[in-house]
Write a structure and sequence with these properties.
By secondary structure, the protein is an all-alpha fold.
């Protein structure tokens, strides 16, 4: 769980309560940190790149036409890896030193992850638009 031995019992209880609160959604259904992070990535991926269904139907307006699930999967992996790496670095952690869900302990951590995830999506979209446009010229 990663609670330091230098914390008082009250601090440990407060930290555990904060983590439990974080795991509860508005409908009071527990949601693990990993699932919440996955939900954040999915929401931003769909906001910037559309859903798989939209991509499959050709409704997305970036990159070349004829995209396949491989394109969709690659975008998912880039967002996941980039967001995870940047969040870990923002917490002073090397990539393999801790799991992402172990580092997300508070609502503030979750908000920070959202900011990083959105920045990763924006950056990837800008790159796709830039290089797709450069190839079309």
């Amino acid at each position: 769980m990663g609670i330091s031995k230098t914390m008082t019992l009250e601090e440990q209880i407060a930290a555990l309560q904060a983590q439990m609160d974080l795991l509860m959604q508005a409908n009071k259904r527990p949601l693990s940190p990993a699932k919440r992070l996955e939900e954040i990535r999915r929401n931003y991926r769909e906001q910037y790149f559309g859903s798989w269904e939209e991509m499959r139907k050709g409704e997305t307006q970036y990159g070349p036409s004829g995209k396949s699930y491989s394109d969709y999967d690659t975008i998912m992996q880039i967002i996941s890896k980039t967001s995870g790496l940047l969040f870990k670095y923002s917490r002073g952690q090397a990539s393999r030193s801790a799991s992402l869900s172990e580092l997300v302990k508070t609502d503030e951590d979750m908000k920070d992850y959202e900011v990083i995830c959105e920045a990763a999506c924006k950056s990837l979209m800008n790159g796709i638009k830039h290089f797709s446009a450069a190839k079309a010229d």
